[in-house]
Specification:
Layout lengths: L15 H16 L15 E9 L15 E3 L2 H5 L9 E3 L12 E11 L2 E8 L5 H10 L3 E12 L6 E16 L9 E4 L7
Parallel strand pairs: 2-7, 3-7
Antiparallel strand pairs: 1-5, 1-8, 3-4, 4-5, 6-7
Length: about 200
């Protein structure tokens, strides 16, 4: 007689009570509908923006922070040489739009270019991580501007009433109420898909 041990026995080894419980479970699984949920998280952290970061070859309207009360000029030739240092720099915002807040990062700069006398930037806002702040930026963009953050500054003449920067490194920028910005003609356009050079 030959036995095939790879074929399971045709008779269940469960006792009668166990077989009944198994049958009830199987019937219950057939009756319960499968509920499928679609998760719709808002935002992608890829909300585009374009902005005027500052004006070039002309004095700032106000003294930027750290300039010891001096208005500042950034020559366009110097700015062109620093465009790469703006890429991947953080964009921050304060809750009241009145100042910089490096602890509240709402985006990142991806591109920078010079357009005439304007230093332009574009990038992404984190509309998922900072949903309420980005929504407020979109709602108030008509009155918002931008402000740069720099370090390692070299001033042509510290005795001058207006400081001309001959060297520096960009470390980030902020979105804030235009009236608090050093340059009053800065601006930001959230959801702007076009970028120029």
């Amino acid at each position: 007689m030959v036995h095939n041990y790879t074929v399971p026995p045709s008779v269940s080894r469960l006792d009668a009570i166990a077989r009944e419980v198994e049958a009830q479970w199987a019937a219950a699984r057939r009756r319960v509908p499968v509920r499928r949920r679609a998760l719709r998280a808002k935002g992608t952290n890829k909300e585009q923006f374009t902005g005027i970061l500052c004006m070039l070859d002309q004095p700032s309207d106000k003294a930027p922070g750290g300039s010891e009360g001096h208005r500042v000029i950034i020559p366009s030739a110097v700015a062109r040489g620093k465009l790469l240092t703006l890429r991947q720099m953080p964009v921050n915002v304060s809750q009241d739009f009145k100042d910089h807040d490096k602890h509240t990062v709402v985006g990142v700069v991806q591109e920078a270019w010079v357009d005439g006398s304007r230093l332009m930037v574009s990038g992404l806002l984190y509309d998922k991580n900072e949903q309420s702040l980005v929504a407020r930026i979109q709602a108030n963009k008509h009155q918002l501007g931008m402000s740069y953050e720099v370090s390692s500054c070299v001033v042509a003449d510290t005795a001058a009433s207006v400081w001309t920067l001959t060297d520096f490194e960009f470390t980030g920028c902020a979105i804030l109420d235009r009236s608090y910005a050093a340059y009053q003609s800065t601006a930001i356009a959230a959801r702007a898909g076009a970028r120029g050079r």
